[in-house]
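Continuing the batch. This is chain 6 of the set; chains 1 through 5 are on the previous pages. Same settings as before, nothing changed between runs. Recording input and output for traceability.
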Amino acid sequence: MAIIRLRMVSPSNQAPYSIEELARLGGVPPALVQRYLDEGLLEPVAGNARTAWFFDDKALFELRRIQRLRRELGVNIAGVAVIHDLLRQIDELKDEVDRLKGRLS
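Output for chain 6:
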């Protein structure tokens, strides 16, 4: 029997988060958050490369999902990018289906 230990870290409700805050809440080093940002896996809600990036709770959710894919499933960053893109496409298709259902009603 396998024992799985979960560590729950809730958002601080102080979004937007800096890279350092996002990293702390996600349990990763800030350099890794920067790498995910560079790879297009995380989207900031404000800021720029010259000042600072800021992130919302959606980015925190994405960071946790990325880490889950990497740690639990052994997916590399390129694989995470593919999964991320496919999940985005699925969400867009679901929205389209909902919109079409609304037209039929």
